[in-house]
Amino acid sequence: MTLRYEFTQQAITEQGFQAEICLTNTGERPVKLGCLYFSLARILQPADVTGGELRARDGDLHAIAFDSTLEPGDELRCQLNNPRDRMVKFTDWPYGVYAESPLGELLPMTIQEPPVNWRLSPLAGHSREALQELAVVHTVVPQPQSIALGAQQFTRPVTLGWKEPPAALKVTSADLAAWSEVLAEFTPVVAVSASGWPVSFVQQDMASGSYRLQVTAQGGVIQTADGAGVHAALASLVQWLAGGQVQEVVIEDVPRFGYRGLHLDVVRHFVPVDQVCKVLRLAALYKLNQFHWHLTDDEAWRLEIRAYPALTEQTAVRGRGRTMPPQMGTGDTDHGGFYTQDEVRQVVALANSLGINVMPEIDVPGHARALLRALPELQEPADESVYRSVQHYSDNVLNPALPATWTVLQTILDEVMELFPSPDIHLGSDEVPVGVWQRSPAAIDKAQSLGLADVTALHGWFMRGLEDHLLQRGRRAAGWEEITVGQAVSRRTTVFSWQGVEAGQKAAALGYPVVMTPAQYCYLDLSYNRDQAEPGYYWAGETDLAKAYGYEPLADWSGDGVGTNLVRGLQACVWSELLAESYQLEYMLLPRLLAVAERAWSSADVRDMDDFVRRCLTHRALWQRAGWYYRAEALGW
What we know:
The protein is an alpha/beta fold. The protein folds into three domains: 3-112, Immunoglobulin-like; 146-253, Chitobiase, domain 2; 264-365 and 409-608, Glycosidases (TIM Barrel). It has 16 helices and 27 strands. The strands form five sheets. The protein has an eight-stranded parallel beta barrel with strand order 18-19-22-23-24-25-26-27, surrounded by six helices. The protein starts with a strand and ends in a 12-residue tail after the last helix.
């Protein structure tokens, strides 16, 4: 008894798509078919389906009921006609497909995949390119302020020995051990403690994060004012030692922005802790110093909270029959995981040793479906509000008017602060849908008692209350651009501008510190181009290497540049709706992460795209040695 599933895209209309699903009984016995399930970001309405009945929809999970018996060889065809949403790419197609009998039993089924399916055949660099070891590396990414080449070359050392840094630099043995791992991962050089090519450290007055690196046959010398400068210099040193021969050099460098970040969503698809650490080592290699860890969302809660074990027990794994249903293509297979507090400490310690701050995100009041599913006491039974989030949930927003909401969140934040020494705790605050709290008796009463104009003002009031909780404990709040709603939070809160550049400019003009992460330039889960076989979303357009590199955060600033001094820096973001496997994540990161890194570190006048590509090409040897997938240059950067 076997079903074969085939999806055929028949047309892309001006505003939508037409497609057909064909189910064939390829077995020798009749098949009683109940429902077909699949994930689809292009949400269907009942009227869009012919030949079946759209019986249920939960987030992106669709259920089409057939209640039919297929005799051997029989076909069942179902037409989809969505006039609202276009379907341009194979990654727009239904995924995570499975079928059940009328009794809810899983039916065996084969899937006819798209002609080019990146989920099975990764468009990866190191599986396709045969690269020779570089004779000598003359390139550093991000581009330093100055590089003065010496006259001599010498054979790359086999081993390297760290000399003890001055105590004032606050560089520990754990820091040097972490950089030894980076060195061994990306180059053939092995770091040892007492012998080998020596690297020494000298404290010298200069700007924070700046450094002077001298490399000769006799050893390396790092001059800097602080630990941040040591980490930056070591990143350049690792890159410089990647060739078979090493050119003598003096590199002098200074960072443009103090905040140089990478955001990683580990909720939509779980990223194992080893992969998180691998990402951290890559980020450090390119002088990123902030890791924004998106730990909670509608689809799961990934952080162990000992006060509320149900958060991970109930929501960390999603699947058929679980508290959290399949989403984002996970289909009939359980998917997920979470980070124990010991694992979090491991990640934070590694990041700290590499000069990276880990900023956790607890996303509220929206994007809280997993939290609400795990702790139903956070729901108000009398609330009859009707809303639908961007991700098509109607039950994902916390109610700020309930005392339990405050008790739970303050307890969670206290545990979070114990785990993360980050000065900033990201509170999300994004994508709160229209309609929330409108028919909540508790919210209506609370808004009236506070003298607010209406219940929508509870959003800003809520964020300010959480910010105050953080401030009282010596921390600051951060949030996506929506956190400025009503200007309720203080000017200590950092605003992350994501839907474009305008929100960041506006927030800075109002006096808020800003991190620029506009999707059209900095969201690395967006597709490289519009080709049907190229994976990724494109709601904010496509982003190739040139587009990411061409972004200048302080250009075209409205209001005569008011607020540019409040731009803390840049951040690359990766969302994982389509990134079920590690190679898919890596493919999206490389080489585009280097473009954001250079824009965040190098001076604004470093704009030579041809030179940047040349430098990136030499770094393929480093990526291959470290086992990183990346987009092959032959596919177009």
